[in-house]
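Working notes for the structural subgroup meeting. M.R. asked for a predicted model of this chain before we commit to crystallization trials. I am recording the input and output together here so anyone reviewing the notebook later can reproduce the run.

Input as submitted:
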Amino acid sequence: MWSTFLVTDEEGRGVGPAAAGTAAPAGAAQSMGGLAGLMSGRSTFGGNKRRRTGHVMTEAQEGKIKLAFFVAIVGVVLTVLGVCTEFWVELAPSKSFYDNQTCPAVHLGLWKGCTKTLWVADIDPARESCGPAELPGESNCTYFKFFTTGENTVVFNKTTHKNLNVAAAMLSLFSLVLMVMGAICISMALSKDIVFFLKPASICFILSGVLVLLSLLVFQQAVWALLDSDHSVPLHHQFSWSVSCLGCAGPILIVGGVLFLLLALPYSPWQRCLPHSDSSS
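Returned structure, recorded in token form:
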């Protein structure tokens, strides 16, 4: 026995579905088809939009990104430590050049230089020059004037070359800016789960590592120009631990940028270079 379910509106007209076993009206069928098409269209549009924004990273890929980010952070910390300290190079005359009790030593950085008066009795007898600068003594540190008034600094009758010093300082600052930009890109990639941000981050870290190494080369040229400016006082020079920090930071930043670039590739380079052999063979 057929049963009919009717739903009436306020005027008493039937608006419910047709009786069971009867065909639905053509208008109702078209409406249902249009609604289904609209729903499927929305679903397709959402899927296309999701695909356009980039594929979501997996947990394994996120762990690799965090590991590469840790490597880059080590380079950033070493760079900040080297840039903010003034132990780039130590300059010192012979420990018997002035008197037999005290001798001066100077250690320079990108931003300031420090003159330190050391006791000859505290210096290693096997050492010919005054130093090292880490020994206790009276210290006087001043910032370089070529950043403010443009004046050169005189160290043991030798004159600094402000153009080279300023160039080394600017290169180090540009490298720090690129590191901050790269860190922001990685933070956005991890928070938004979008791999696309790895590419600009890799470029920022690679360029920052190159700029750090260029800053070291320019500073080395500045030291040699300082030593050649006057030969009245013979000096011994030694690059100190701040330079070692930046010398390690540059390659670490470049390695971190390369790791981000490899993680941003749509395929694994190891699988392309070393494909797995078929188990049946």
